[in-house]
Amino acid sequence: MMTDRRPTTKKKLxxxxxxxxxxxxxxxxxxxLWLAYAYHAFKDVPFIIKGDDDAYVxxxxxxxxxxxVMGGTQARPPPPPPRQTDTAVMGSTAxxxxxxxxxxxxxxxxxxxxxxxxxxWGSSRRMLDVRFNxxxxxxxxxxxxxxxxxxxxxxxxxxxxxxxxxxxxxxLKPLYRQSGLQHEDVMIGLxxxxxxxxxxxLCADRTIWYVKESYSRFHDMHHGRLRxxxxxxxxxxxxxPVDAYFLHYYFQQEHIASTLETPYGGGDQKGMAIEAAAExxxxxxxxxxxxxxxxxxxxxxxxxxxxxxxxxxVIAHDDxxxxxxxxxxxxxxxxxxxxxxxxxTS
Length: 346
Known about the structure:
By secondary structure, the protein is of the alpha/beta class. It has a domain at 2-57 and 112-215 and 330-344. Helices cover 33% and strands 16% of the residues. The chain is built from 10 helices and 11 strands. A 6-stranded mixed sheet has the order 1-4-3-5-11-10. It has a 3-stranded mixed sheet with strand order 2-7-6, with no helix packed on it. A two-stranded antiparallel sheet has the order 8-9. A hairpin with a 4-residue loop joins strand 8 (313-316) and strand 9. The radius of gyration is 22 Å and the shape is globular.
């Protein structure tokens, strides 16, 4: 049924385009249907994520952040141990500069739904008095998904699940706009605001916890809210296929570049990283023999940063990327019914 929704026709991956109401409504319908599928197919998971197909996610970092905030920001668990004992980390310098986890590795256990907070997590935006997370990527607790999918308890509210399975109709335009279906991300925030009392009854601690990520961590490339990709990037939006390939290389190298010993002692780490990246790009161009477009228009990245002034990190060995110990602080915004939340401080 999800493939029956209105296609995005002329839009290309990574482009910023206004699709028109029928397609926008179709995208919101797809989101509702995805939430319905995930909610019923994965009955034990406490969180459900929605992400755009042009969003690059540094998964080890995001999962570490979720575990950290879920634990009340008291201690950050290390990344899971390597699946294979011979997994190599790229570059010996990363081992010496990164924090090495000592002691017994804690067991990784899927937390139960009742013992987790009702997180609504993402790049937070505000439209009038509605707090919502940008559609590039957001995380919802399953109790919040339940609230979105269930029949509304107020007669003035709209049944989103019912709207999701109906064909687009000009007659239903008022309902689409009333429910925010012209913007899929706003629709989620609007629904949670209208059904906040229901959330208080369902959530374990009687509140929605909004987690707000900064633009240095969740940001656009090429178009939109532009930021250079740095060590602090977790989600990079408007990512083309070739960008994703390059970004994985970047994240495997940036922590090495910042701690690299140069032949002359304390020399130009940035220059060496750029030179190595140029060599890597040349090899990729030769390997793909012109079949991959966009290698000449890769996103802007920052290769080095002051490691001593930033947070510590450990290496996620299976991915070869640094997982940084970001901090989060308590945050609220009463004007948008954000009574409890966290925001990243980087």
